[in-house]
Specification:
Layout: E1 8-12, H1 16-40, H2 56-84, H3 99-113, H4 132-156, H5 163-166, H6 171-175, H7 178-210, H8 214-220, E2 222-226, H9 232-238
Antiparallel strand pairs: 1-2
Helix pairs in contact: 1-2, 4-7
Length: 242
């Protein structure tokens, strides 16, 4: 379906804090995954230098911990913004159990998964912000992130005297020991990587298919909306800057 570009209107969707959280979280997850792989399977380093002069693995662990703390701070800030941000950032935008949201699931499945074209596409069921499936994926993300935070800091709690990791010292005994905690921590990393890959693919796919600025919107904050396919009250809402 070819859309008339003259009907597109620039709408402010992603506020600056949301964009900041997004990119810093993306960098944190990337660093955590890379350093996590190295920690799980450290390379053999052969050198005649004194051990105190070769602290590469210690540096890797330090980077991992810094990224972990950064990640936790960003999650807490994003949770706060879910209550004070605009309508696209608030927790209600991620609630999938509404009639409109359930209809949107079928639309997304048809277009994104089956790659079918809807000739009579009802753009009123296409979210300006996240679609319903994306919102459900972010809920799954949040659950997986909590597991990673609890198991990661639980493992770290026995290696430090810092108060924050000590809050999670009960996690490792609950899971049955270090081995089980490490196994859970490593295993949960894989669905996170999978969701990230799918997320990047779908963002690029929608940017190409719909031309609404999916990629650039996470830099500028603006998307493009087909104004003649939305009800008047919806257009008035998306034009607001909060």
């Amino acid at each position: 379906m070819i859309l008339n570009r003259s009907n597109f209107k620039r709408a402010y969707v992603w506020q600056l804090p949301v964009r900041f959280f997004h990119w810093l979280n993306a960098m944190s997850i990337t660093v955590l995954c890379i350093t996590g792989f190295i920690i799980a399977d450290p390379p053999a380093l052969l050198s005649s230098a004194d051990a105190t002069e070769i602290y590469r693995f210690g540096i890797v662990r330090f980077i991992h911990f810094v990224a972990a703390y950064t990640f936790v701070i960003m999650i807490l800030m994003r949770f706060y913004w879910a209550f004070v941000g605009n309508r696209y950032a608030r927790w209600s935008a991620y609630w999938p159990f509404t009639q409109k949201a359930l209809k949107n699931i079928f639309h997304v499945f048809k277009v994104d998964v089956l790659l079918l074209n809807e000739k009579n596409r009802d753009l009123r069921n296409i979210s300006v912000g996240h679609n319903t499936v994306a919102a459900m994926a972010y809920i799954a993300f949040f659950i997986l992130f909590l597991i990673m935070i609890f198991t990661g800091f639980g493992l770290y709690s026995s290696m430090t005297t810092a108060w924050f990791p000590k809050l999670f010292s009960w996690v490792v005994p609950l899971l049955g020991g270090d081995f089980a905690a490490r196994l859970v921590h490593h295993t949960v990393m894989w669905p996170i990587i999978l969701i990230v890959i799918i997320h990047v693919y779908l963002v690029l796919y929608h940017d190409w298919l719909e031309g609404r600025g999916e990629v650039s919107s996470m830099v500028s904050g603006y998307k493009f909306v087909v104004t003649d396919r939305f009800p008047k009250e919806e257009i008035e809402i998306i034009e607001e800057k909060k």
